[in-house]
Design brief:
The complex is a heterodimer of chains A (about 120) and B (about 120). Chain A is mostly beta strands and about 120 residues long. Chain A is built from no helices and twelve strands. In chain A, strands 2, 5, 6, 10, 11 and 12 form a six-stranded mixed β-sheet that branches. A four-stranded antiparallel β-sheet of chain A has the order 3-9-8-7, with no helix packed on it. A two-stranded antiparallel sheet of chain A has the order 1-4. In chain A, strand 5 and strand 6 form a beta hairpin. Chain B has about 120 residues and is an all-beta fold. In chain B, strands 2, 4, 5, 6, 9, 10 and 11 form a seven-stranded mixed β-sheet that branches. In chain B, strands 1-3-8-7 form a four-stranded antiparallel β-sheet, with no helix packed on it. Classes of the chains: A mainly beta (about 120), B mainly beta (about 120). The interface between A and B is medium-sized, with 24 and 24 residues.
């Protein structure tokens, strides 16, 4: 069965510092991986996805994520955090071996960017 | 492209009442998904449609829940005889699925249900 773990409930980063939001996954085959962001009273917004190819994926709002197959991780990163990046971030995975298109979400990590 | 819309945004109901939510996907998106999100959790898959066909239902979707997408455009999710445990955010997402391709799901703002 596929699963996603986001080990940190909350991450605090000072504005201007680099940020990392961690995600590890478990699938039986190769993964498709996603990051979404959720702002208060709004739906999830797609940030980026990994399908295949380059392990470093660039997405919206200056975010990027690095796929590491040996560590089964897909950490979200940004070189310089903004206060407006404060939100709830979800990692999600789909197993290529699955015939359905269900994606499984992690529990989310709340990111606080301190001014 | 106006994004996925959901109506209502908030619903408060009494236990035992029926409720219905509507989702309008991005135009030309052939896939439509329903999720439920409770506090402190990520979205949990409920069901999805390709065009008007309902292809999969989660075990979370008890027989009190029913979803339709009659013309392959908008969808409705009905909950009968609501229970307090049904209180959650109900999220809809849509995508354009092409054969052999990985679709990206785009989410609506959600309907927050409170069952008193």
């Amino acid at each position: 069965a596929q699963s996603v773990a986001q080990p940190e409930d909350q991450v605090n980063v000072a504005e201007g510092n680099p940020l990392t939001v961690k995600c590890t996954y478990s699938v039986s085959g190769n993964p498709y991986l996603f990051w979404y962001v959720q702002y208060p009273n709004r739906g999830l917004q797609f940030l980026l996805k990994y399908i295949t190819g380059d392990n470093l994926v660039k997405g919206s709002y200056g975010f990027e994520a690095e796929f590491n197959k040996s560590q089964t991780s897909f950490h979200l990163k940004k070189p310089s955090a903004l206060v407006s990046d404060s939100a709830l971030y979800f990692c999600a995975v789909r197993d290529i071996m699955n015939r359905d298109d269900k994606i499984i979400f992690g529990k989310g990590t709340r990111l606080h960017i301190l001014p | 492209d106006t994004g996925v819309s959901q109506d209502p945004r908030h619903k408060i109901t009494k236990r035992g009442q029926n409720v219905t939510f509507r989702c309008d996907p991005i135009s030309e998106h052939n896939r439509l998904y329903w999720y439920r999100q409770t506090l402190g959790q990520g979205p949990e898959f409920l069901t999805y449609f390709q065009n008007e066909a309902q292809l999969e239902k989660s075990r979370l979707l008890s027989d009190r829940f029913s979803a339709e997408r009659p013309k392959g455009s908008f969808s409705t999710l009905e909950i009968q005889r609501t229970e307090q445990g049904d209180s959650a955010m109900y999220l809809c997402a849509s995508s354009r699925k092409l054969a052999g391709d990985l679709d990206t799901q785009y989410f609506g703002p959600g309907t927050r249900l409170t069952v008193l």
